[in-house]
Amino acid sequence: MSDLARLLARQLLDEARALPRRGARRLGGRPDVAACATTDEIRAAARRALPKVIFDFVDGAAGDEWTARRNIADLQALEIAPRILVDVSVVDTGTTALGTPIALPVIGAPTGLTGLVHHEGEVGLATGAHRAGSIYTLAAMSSYSIEEVAAASPGPTWFQTYVWRDRGLVAELLGRARAAGMTAAVFTVDVPVAAARDRDRRNGFGLPPRATFRSVASGLRRPAWSWAFLRDPRITAANVAADPHAAGEAISVAGYINEQFDPRADWSALEWLRGVWDGPLVVKGLTRAEDARQAVALGADAVVVSNHGGRQLDHAPTTIRALPAVADAVGADAEVFLDGGIRRGTDVLKAVALGARAVLVGRPLVFGLGAGGAAGVERAMTILGEELRTAMTLAGVARIADLDPSLIVARPAADDPSHPSTTTGRRHPGG
Ligand SMILES: Cc1cc2nc3c(=O)[nH]c(=O)nc-3n(C[C@H](O)[C@H](O)[C@H](O)COP(=O)(O)O)c2cc1C
Question: Which residue has a Cα nearest atom 28 of ligand 1?
Answer without folding.
Answer: 111
